[in-house]
Amino acid sequence: MAEARIRWIGGPVLHAVSEGAFQLGEAIEVGEAGLPGEVIRLRGREFVAQVYEDTTGLKPGDPVHGTGQPLSVPLGPGLLGNIYDGLLRPLSEERFVEGDDTESRFQPQVSEGDKVKPGQIYAQVTMHGLEEPCLVPPHVSGTVEEIAEEGKIDREQVLMVVRDDDDACHEVHLHNRWPVRRPRPVRDRLPGDRPLITGQRILDTLFPIARGSRAAIPGGFGTGKTVLQETLAKHAHADVIIYVGCGERGNEMAEVLNEFPDLTDPSTGRPLMERTVIIANTSNMPVAAREASIYAGVTVGEYFRDQGKHVALMADSTSRWAEALREVSGRLGELPAEAGYPAYLSSRLADFYERAARVTTLTGEEGSLTIIGAVSPPAGDFSEPVTSHTKRYIRCFWGLDKERAEARFYPAIHPLQSYSEDAEKFTGWWTEKGNSDWYRQRERLLTLLEREAHLQRMARIVGKDALPADQQLTLTCAQLVNEALLSQSAFSKTDRYCSPERQIEMLRLVIRFIDLAFEALERGADPDDIAGLSVYRRLQRMGEEIGEDEIERFDDLRSELDDQLGGLKARETQE
Ligand SMILES: Nc1ncnc2c1ncn2[C@@H]1O[C@H](COP(=O)(O)OP(=O)(O)OP(=O)(O)O)[C@@H](O)[C@H]1O
């Protein structure tokens, strides 16, 4: 392999003079310790590289070895349930799901002489108590020359040899490397068809995301990005969760690492870690590795998608990742663009988000990778470069609002600053679930919330009591929408997750309240009397009071609602 010598080194960036041919994007090993790095710029015999580990102690003259391969990560069974660094190296020997490594068992599903195709499952492996498929790597096809026997296997052993049509032999291992910056091939990309249910009412009901789509969660300091990402990781209806903690503070990541192994998947009752891969790259780890961690995460996501699974990737936070790009770019002496970020910030964001997709895999199955990235705009300013460029590539924008967070109104997603370009596709899905009115109800709520913002501005000037009765009632109804539907504590035992069935009931009750309240107003009822009804307070708290396994209790609430609002008379008639 090609060799070079360091000529200059500063932080994660080095310049080297090569004695052989290096390629752009080639993975390298730096110094005697062989620290991992990547060639990021080539000029004649000189190149610039970034190093993914602490470079303290490296000096001019130290050797750099080429690997001849692009930066890649090993993909295969055993990834689930563990925590990795930005280059997918396990951060801990301890595993977070039960089971014993020595019990790895290999069960071939093909025999010598069989034909295999890219992406095909050629064996099953049981590791750590989990059975996982072994896939033929995407660029391998041909006739099986050799296949390992059923039984115990060793991680490094060759499991299968495939001879292709050009007579070349390919060795297939348990883990096969894939370049992190290259999307894995698929047969077809498909449009999003059904929602990725998150269990969060404000998202599923107002701003739903399709499986295979992409969303951003921008929010200023302390507005709840991390809590929301973790809530999604715990409750989203996905087969596999990839959680990339990118440049967050070590203590925040430590919380995730401490908490996740103890959590149970609410839908299966199994440990949540069994379906989770965590990639941790905290702010004190080398900055270049942070840049790579996002691509490593997305590559792992695609690997599970290629097994016909529905995968959700949470990246917290893409701003820290963009800062890593900025730091490396600064050290390269590149001309800075907006806010010091490199001019290629936008294309790098595109490279990341565009890997989200619903696909037909190479073997004809359906899989999806949904990407949800948190953004931390300085001072919560959504016009800054990372947020504004991200907006170009995402379909759902879930903007967190400082005022809502300060009022401890969680999740602090602002309904008027957020949007979903996927929503229109889901009328059919909600109809199948039993709510053919969902899209119309959603539009009504959004219109009501817009009207609320307008009326609140007026009320601040003239006082709420000076508003006409119908406007006062509009504010009362909007408050109910906010408190009953949009507010949902991530820490509430009853309400941290809300199933689509429960969301339908709650949405219907709120809409019914609005309809009956305005009918009562027409009959001459007083808006204050409507807001003072005990059923109004019960509706505000229904998320906390009626859990997932007592959905029939919503019927009682509905009867109470009909009785109280139906019985409400004009004030004069009451007297
Ligand atoms: N959905 C929620 N339910 C209940 N409490 C929440 C919710 N979201 C946020 N909080 C509260 O707000 C606090 C701050 O949230 P979080 O750490 O997620 O903010 P952040 O935006 O990630 O912050 P930073 O900018 O520091 O990364 C949490 O510790 C929690 O008390």
Automatic annotation (TrEMBL):
Coiled coil: none annotated. GO terms for biological process: proton motive force-driven plasma membrane ATP synthesis. ATP binds at G219, G220, F221, G222, T223, G224, K225, T226. CDD domains: ATP-synt_V_A-type_alpha_C (cd18111), V_A-ATPase_A (cd01134). Residues 428-524 form the ATP synthase A/B type C-terminal domain. Residues 11-68 form the ATPase F1/V1/A1 complex alpha/beta subunit N-terminal domain. Residues 199-420 form the ATPase F1/V1/A1 complex alpha/beta subunit nucleotide-binding domain. InterPro entries: ATP-synt_VA_C, ATP-synth_a_Xtn, ATP_synth_asu-like_sf, ATPase_a/bsu_AS, ATPase_F1/V1/A1_a/bsu_N, ATPase_F1/V1/A1_a/bsu_N_sf, ATPase_F1/V1/A1_a/bsu_nucl-bd, ATPase_F1/V1_b/a_C. GO terms for molecular function: ATP binding; proton-transporting ATP synthase activity, rotational mechanism; proton-transporting ATPase activity, rotational mechanism. It catalyses: ATP + H2O + 4 H(+)(in) = ADP + phosphate + 5 H(+)(out). Keywords: ATP synthesis, ATP-binding, Cell inner membrane, Cell membrane, Hydrogen ion transport, Ion transport, Membrane, Nucleotide-binding, Translocase, Transport. Residues 105-181 form the ATPsynthase alpha/beta subunit barrel-sandwich domain. Its EC number is 7.1.2.2. One of its GO terms (cellular component) is proton-transporting ATP synthase complex. NCBIfam families: PRK04192.1 (NF003220). Belongs to the ATPase alpha/beta chains family. PANTHER family: H(+)-TRANSPORTING TWO-SECTOR ATPASE, V-TYPE PROTON ATPASE CATALYTIC SUBUNIT A. Produces ATP from ADP in the presence of a proton gradient across the membrane. The V-type alpha chain is a catalytic subunit. This is V-type ATP synthase alpha chain. The gene is atpA.
